[in-house]
Amino acid sequence: MSKETVRWGVLATGGIASSFTTDLMAMRETDGAEVVAVASRTTAKAKAFADRFGIPRAYGSWAELAADEDIDVVYVAGPHSAHREAAGLCLEAGRAVLCEKAFTLNSREAEELVAVARRHDRFLMEAMWMYCNPVVRRLVELVRDGAIGEVRTVHADFGLAGPFDAEHRLRDPALGGGALLDLGVYPVSFAHLLLGEPDRVQADALLSPEGVDLNTGMLLGWDSGAAALLSCSITADTPITAAVTGTKGRIELGRGFFYPDRFVLHRNGADPEEFTARVDSRHSLQYEAAEVMRCLRAGEKESPLVPLAGSLAVMRTLDAVRDRIGVRYPGDQN
Questions:
Q1: pLDDT for 127-157, tens place per residue?
Q2: Please, are residues 107 and 133 in contact by the beta-carbon 8 Å criterion?
Q3: d(CA 181, CA 202)
Q4: Cβ contacts of residue 309 below 8 Å, gap of 6+?
Q5: Do the beta carbons of residue 328 and residue 322 sit within 8 Å?
Q6: Confidence of residue 184 (pLDDT cuts 50, 70, 90)
Q7: Angstrom distance (rounded) from CA 104 to CA 85
Q8: In whole angstroms, what is the distance from residue 94 CA to residue 127 CA?
Q9: Hey, what long-range contacts does 108-114 have (CB within 8 A, 24 or more apart)?
Q10: N or C: which end of the chain has fewer CB within 10 A?
Q11: pTM of the model
Q12: pLDDT value at position 334?
């Protein structure tokens, strides 16, 4: 495979943008990743981020970054409520885009974004790094090869203890706040990865005074008879584990299930088998970056590991959960 340089732009300067940029910097020599520009809503924030990482250009607007023809792909890392606008702007300007999850605020915006990418014939991928993790990929292979038989249940949770005050972005409906889009997207995406889009969705939640979900439980059902029991919280430190059980065994993932370096396979009547991989959990975002660069070098417009149809399906499920628990965002009404 060719290792020609892939030039990245980073749109946003928060914590996840910092982590992703750190991983890109570590991939410069081995994978040909180069961060050439960063943008924020203010020049000062962009300049501070650029100085921190040694990035050549800093822009005080998204439009300036989108217009930079030296950029091959833009990593969009702002709030969920900004994804549709920011990613759409970059796609329309001719840039490929890796957009953070949750992909957008709702499924309508996700469909619009995919339509923009296809209209302009540009690469687009949701930053669901879990799907690109080598250990998760091996788990999926085993399940699809029948190692645990027919899947019957999926369990997964992701919760943080908080507390988050009323001014925090996770409590702000205008920013897509709540546990579901930030944390619940992982358990939901894990269930989708193994079973596809559910046929039925049930949910219950504790809501904040602002109207976002603080603690949410979900029961997803499939016509096959499979079920997924999932939860997310910004008020409780949950185990953050996952398991998939079939008619012939089960697979268990430990704490931090969405960036694992190992899992245990329990086949009925056999000793447990541990599967491991040389995964640098401190820099696990590199796997999604590597997949983006592989796709760009191959001329692919979407990733087979994180297909757009899958991202749209997850957004439909998240919409259904919000409908059941009574969470609406201002952007839903546009």
A1: 999 999 999 999 999 999 999 999 999 999 9
A2: no
A3: 16
A4: none
A5: yes
A6: very high
A7: 9
A8: 19
A9: 109/83, 109/84, 109/331, 110/84, 110/311, 110/312, 110/315, 111/312, 112/84, 112/88, 113/83, 113/84, 113/87, 113/88, 114/308, 114/311, 114/312
A10: N
A11: 0.96
A12: 53
Amino acid letter, 10: V
| Structure-model confidence comparison of residues 72 and 30, the more confident one | 72
State the SS3 of 254-274: CCCCCCCCEEEEEECCCCCEE
Structure tokens belonging to residue 229: 């029991």
Which pair of tokens denotes residue 158?
Answer: 């992701």
Can you read off the two tokens belonging to residue 212? Answer: 């976002």
157: tokens are: 């949770």
CB atoms within 10 A of CB 92: 14
Q: Tell me the C-alpha distance between 279 and 301, whole Å.
A: 27
Residue 101 CA to residue 185 CA, distance in Å, equals: 8
- DSSP bridge pairs for 242: 156, 253
- Distance from CA of residue 306 to its chain's centroid? 9
Q: What are the tokens at 44?
A: 């000062």
- Alpha carbons 258 and 245: distance in angstroms, whole number: 17
Cα(224)–Cα(227) distance, integer angstroms: 9
Q: Greatest CA separation found in the chain?
A: 62
Region class of 178: left (phi > 0), else alpha (psi between -120 and 50), else beta = left
Say whether 78 sits in a helix, a strand or coil.
coil
Catalytic sites, residue numbers? 101
